[in-house]
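Handover notes (outgoing to incoming on-call)

Open items:
1. Stage II sporulation protein E (SpoIIE): sequence verified, structure written out, both below. Nothing else pending on this one.
2. Nothing else urgent.
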Amino acid sequence: MPTAADHSNKDPSWLTTRLLVLIIAPVLLLGGIIISVAIDRFAQISQLQLHRESIRNLQLLSELVDALAMERGATNLILVSSGHHHMSSMTSIRQQTDRLSAQFLQLANRPHTPTDGTHFQRLSAALQALPEQRSEVDQLHVTPETCHQYYTSMISDLLLMADATGKLNNLHYNNQVKILLLISEAKERLGQTRALMTPILARNTVSSADEQQLIQLRTEFHLLINHAFKYSDQPTRLALDQFMTQDSLQRMLQIIQHSLAASAATTNLQPITYEQWFHLSSQAINQLLDTELRVINNLINENTQQLQSTQTTTASLVSFFMLFLLIILLVSAETHKSIKDKRELLLQLLNEKAADSVLAKQVYDAITRSSQQIRPQGINYAIQPCVGHEFSGDFVMLSRTPKSGVYHLLILDATGHGLSAAISLLPLIQIFRSMSEKGFELTDIICEANQKLEQILPGDRLVAAAFISLDLNLQQAQLWNAAMPDTLLLDRKNQARLLASDFLPLGATPLSKEEVKPNTISLTDHSIILLSDGLIEHTRGQKKSRAYKLLAENLILQHYQPDKVISQLLASGPPQDDMTLLIISHPDLQQITI
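Stage II sporulation protein E (SpoIIE) structure tokens:
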């Protein structure tokens, strides 16, 4: 047995190659690790940038919720007081809403925002129609309830978009989305309180039902704010504490209780504004989001620095690797020459194979061409070779007989594909043509063909065949089927009937004349359709009855044109087996349509 020393003596480059492999393998492993780290850094930076953009979108949505809620409250006060208490701050409130609305409508051009849903489309339409709504308010042409619903619908869509933004960008594990939704719900309770207080202050009286409803709103408000504490960090909690300390609801209830104890003519009830509530809640949200943005920006900077360091290391490693790669190329020059020689040999073999294929095609065509030039009226066929093969294992042949108006017709399907399958057919083609031209009966031709194929073909090579004798004088056909698919018969009323195969494939077993019993078919009443199994297999798992039904419908639809029928089938994909379709039809039948 040869040793390593023997190898080194015979080929000095053997030891060098071993050393290079031992050195390069760890270098490649280290390079893979560094490249993997760099890719991970890229992914982290991309994800952080996505979160940063999403948080900015959430800030805009939160500010627009505040602006619309403030405008809703101010508008409600105008409508309830019939325009007598027009708020001096209405102009600035509307300007703030318009500024944020313009930014919101630009979200369609910004990434990481769900702007393809109904909420965005409905909200965009409502914001664009806002000037018309304001005009109706200024002219007192709209009820407080309708106006309140208009603004509330926009706020609801904004909150749903905020939630969808979090889901789209996988932000639900971040607490800012939860806090945003909770505080927005709390603001809704403030808006409802404002709407309830406006008529109370206008009529200067408070009913027990009003008091109970105000207490319920205050309770729900405190529950929402307390729930937000669970998800907030220290800066946000400080802002929320300040928000709760200035509890105007508590002051409002004290005034209401004082009013109930006093006379109905008490006049010390004054409108209590709640704009500061929205300001403080927005401050809490934005403080949290700003903190999140600072953290994300720091992480992006940190990852960028680490990525630059990784790129420097990778560049050094690549230079080192290229040096060793050059050495390997020099050592492998002899191997390259060997590969080149083998490639040239392979090309030579392929060229010889192509030349042999051309010669075989010429010989095959010369043998079969004369048989395919005969085509009486009413006989039409098409053959589609299997994908990737120039030769076909399917074949159709027509031959004259000495008797006028009588033709012999043959359709074949050999085992396999390509040239090997086509060669299997040549002996049968020669027997069929020679015996037909000499006037032999179909039974004699079938038995002779079977005996010949049984003698010369290997055991795994068989030929399915269908023999037809056409008598155009009597307008009838004699059909004998050896292992081809069932023959389809279509009458003038488009009623289909199947004729099963009569025998095993040719060459499989001995055959006597007594066993050959052709079927007699009237040509005036039927169209005869024969096909190879490739046509049935191309229907991709359809049951036989269903496949034949589709074939019959397609035949009638395509006016009995076999090439069009096959083209229609090939629309679903290339053929995996040779496909042949032969149609024997009375000329009048071609005019029948569904």
